[in-house]
Amino acid sequence: MNTATLNTATTVPTHPAPTLSSALHRACLAARIAADNKGRDILVLDMRPCTPLFDFFVISTGTSRRQIHTLAEETDAGLRAEGDERIGIEGYEASKWVVQDYGDVVIHVFDPDTRDYYKLEELWADAVKVDWEQED
Question: pTM, whole model, 2 decimals?
Fold first, then answer.
C-alpha cells in the first residue's frame, strides 16, 4: 500500500480553535452573567497595576449555597462558550467562597459573611474598578 495514500485516508479534518477574547471582555461577561443570575455587589477590578499574576478579578455575592453554585456554573458555561478554559476551582463544596481561575481572570463568589470577612476589594484597594456595565 502506498504510504501517501494511507496518510491521506486517515487524515482527520481539523477545525480552527476559537479565538479567545480579551481578558477585559471575559471579566465583564462574567460580571454580566453574575448579574443575570441575581448576584449582588458585583465588582470587576483591574489587577494589572497591582500584580503580574492575573489581569482581572470579578467579585460577586450569592445569598445561598444554591445561588453560589449557579453563579459559578453559569459563569463557567459562559466563559467556555467564549473559548476559555477553567484552570481550577476551589471552595465549591463548602460554598462560602468559590474561586475560579481562568489564568488572566479570577472569579470570586462569596456568601455575604465571608465576603465581609475577607474584604478583597479593600485588600486590593489599589486596583481600578472597571465599569463593567458600560464595557462592550
Answer: 0.84
